[in-house]
């Protein structure tokens, strides 16, 4: 399976979600690969801080190489997670076309929603050609006590994409673990652990019929 975490706006948590999901899948017994396509190399930096050698990560900020290599990797690994670049470019288009599932993280901000619209259009174009590509919004940095968080969820439900029921909160644990090459599963914030586990379980429950890339 290939899961891409995409959005053209920086700061929405793409890399944080990608590496934490990878760690959760690995803990469940899967063989996981992260492909960092972001020229900034945030996932690569996280991996460089990680003491464990349990998650393989490679940097492929090149659309041609990504297209050639990703399907080969999907045969070798149970799950390949693509950490997307912050732009609607050929790298994003290739990532979309390769994906079984696309997670589109959005924070509680009008700017995040507006930026997501362009990516939604690209995803819809790809789905018109390949309807087996699944995609869903994932609300990140959610705070149930703020009106903007509640409004963000309502606005996103008006878009044609599905929406993950799981939301990731605005928690210091996500930032603290990223700087140390850890996942929140290896941290002391139980709420963050529960959120990540809920995300993992929802993906398993909702996308069991995803096509396997062969």
TrEMBL record:
Domain of life of the organism encoding this protein: Bacteria
Gene3D superfamilies listed in its UniProt record: P-loop containing nucleotide triphosphate hydrolases
Domain called CobQ/CobB/MinD/ParA nucleotide binding: residue spans: 3-176
A Pfam family annotated for this UniProt entry: CbiA
SUPFAM superfamilies tied to this protein: P-loop containing nucleoside triphosphate hydrolases (SSF52540)
Protein name listed in UniProt: AAA family ATPase
